[in-house]
Amino acid sequence: MKKILLLSSLLCLNYAANAQTALSNEIAYKVKNEAFNNSKIEEIAQFMTDYLGPRLAASNLKVRSEQLTMEKLDELGCSNSRIEFAADFPSGGWDNEKTYVAMTAPYYCSFSANPKAWSGSTNGPVKGECIVANIQNQEDIEKYRGKLAGKVLLMPTSEQYEMSFEPLARRYTDEQLNEMAKDSRPYNRRRSVLNNDYFKKRELLRQLYDLLKEEQVLAIISGSGTFNVPNSRGVQYKVGDPEPITEIVLPLEDHNRMVRLVNKGVPVEMELDVKNTFTDNQKVNNVIAEIPGTDPKLKNEIVMIGAHLDSWHGGTGAADNASGCIVMMEAMRIIKELGIQPKRTIRIALWGGEEQGLFGSKGYAMNEIFNAKEQKKLPGYDKFALYLNMDNGSGRFRGIHLEENDQAIPFMQTWGKSLESLGFKTLSIRSTNSTDHVTFSRLGLPAFQFIQDPLEYRRTYHTPMDCYERLSINDLKVNATMIAWLALNAAMDSERIPAKPGYPLIENKKN
Ligand SMILES: [Zn+2]
């Protein structure tokens, strides 16, 4: 290793900021050996899914999972494990304690139902006739006045089932990966403009909701999700608001069946018993732990790896996103187990409140990296060496999206060499969105998500199907190997991937 360090400092002299070097093949072997022959992936995976259960932001189960995950990180050998406050969360906590939903006329049928998060409880077991809300304008709303008490309101059918001829799960082909490696700029971006219809519809729904509340409708039922699996959703709620009406998501098959029957004039009756509890926990927390850096000059620089710990309430949030947490936790264990003393600090961050809008990572950035309110760079900005995020299900890493940061290419080429035999080949300069790396990438910092085999992710995430069975244990082992290797390289290299020139962008508040 000393040889390598010497080489890297020589390169430094000659090529300034472009110098980067990979750790030795001996260390590559050790990382892979630990990851594949002494793997704890299966154990961590069962812990994070079966044992922790669903982890909706700010819920009692999420609070429990923070404590248990922190203890697990200690057990895996991490230092400075802690639960860190990230951001205020006005919705507060919500836990579902009971859900029973059935059709009782024209015949009996129980349903696989998912209550909408932050919606209210029924008054014990209740039964009522179903009516379909058919509302195009304000006059239509008036037609329902005085007729809603004790009824169950079926929202009109919004999605129709389309038969799919796609395989249930798939991996990327070489052709698809080659396509991803191409720069797709300049973009032909069209801004989606919300038209008047959207606002009219939203206003009508608000008025309808007020009437439903006033007339004490029993529940609102909507349809989303196929193969008799309902999707997970939430309603708008702030701590202190009156408790919302009970809202249930049914799979399309069940919801559309009842809508068709009612529209044909067949009386349909439903029975529901739903109990939800609200708690005044208006906090999103992150779970953080470290392997401290040892180089006197570099130990305050941070190589961060992470994923979001929160999930939706159906299922156990296995692919989305226990899988990311499992990989990052196993990577920390591998690094710790090898006994290498990293120069920079390696930090694991398991974010909260991602599903409701990246609350955890945004809060972290606000407190440590860049104060968005004051448009002020904080000390953490210049200490930020790298962030690697995983949040696209359980599929194997096939490459990485580099967020249009050309300066990252030579680093990933050098470090990635030892991972090629495991399938890590595609360096895509493109950006990818919608999860926690965006918080840092927007600030110009090197924060990346991987290209992951899609497996069956799109079909299963945000549903009660998202349980342990959705995890591909071997893919997770490969991903943990890659994270451990890349994080170690980033923590040991004499150079680091620079932030994009000109960042962070400072808004002129006077404009
Ligand atoms: Zn996710």
What is the straight-line distance between the termini? 53 Å
Radius of gyration, Cα only, in angstroms?
Answer: 25 Å
What sort of overall outline do the alpha carbons produce when their principal axes are compared?
elongated
Tell me the major beta sheet.
Answer: 8 strands, mixed
**Low-confidence blocks of residues:** 1-17
What CATH architecture label of the largest domain applies? 3-Layer(aba) Sandwich
The averaged pLDDT comes out at 94
CATH first level of the largest domain: Alpha Beta
Number of helices: 15
The fraction of residues in strands falls at: 15-25%
Count of folded domains: 2
Oligomer: single chain
Structural class: alpha/beta
How are the strands of the biggest sheet laid out side by side?
1-10-12-11-15-18-16-17
CATH topology of the largest domain: Aminopeptidase
**Quantity of strands, as a count:** 18
User: What ligands does this structure carry?
Assistant: zinc ion
Q: Considering the protein shown, what is the CATH homologous superfamily of the largest domain?
A: Zn peptidases
User: Which bin fits the share of residues in helices?
Assistant: 25-40%
